[in-house]
Amino acid sequence: MEMNGSERIQAPRQKVWEALNDPEILRQCIPGCQSLEMTGDNAMAATVKLKIGIVTATFNGNVTLENIDPPKGYTISGEGKGGVAGFAKGGADVSLEEDGAETVLNYDCKAQVGGKIAQMGSRLIDSTAKKLAGQFFAKFNEVVSGANANAQA
User: Fold this and answer.
1) What's the domain count of the chain?
2) In the chain, at which end, N or C, are there fewer CB atoms within 10 A of the end residue's CB?
């Protein structure tokens, strides 16, 4: 599965970059995220509970950041195991472009799933992935833009 898009965020690029590297902000924004902790300089451990179709699973996984180019972007990749439900793994290239006082966040994602969740069909998995990505970026935008508005007030 592949997905790409962009999100306009009403905050300067440096602030968006800092938020993309803040585990607490990411935890708030990732749908179903129960925990997200730094385990190394560019590594995190995550627990995420998701419902895909009729299957609800808790995924435990690791996330790594590579190709780090502050404050322009990075590659984020991860893999999670959900027990009998299966696994999910993938990554995204994320880039940040300044546009006046705003920042345009571009993303290009690739992901794959296996196990029970893969048997649900690509249409359901793709629509669920797009929905989850939409929820993440809407919340991320709200948190970063809101924090920026509060700082200016």
Assistant:
1) 1
2) C
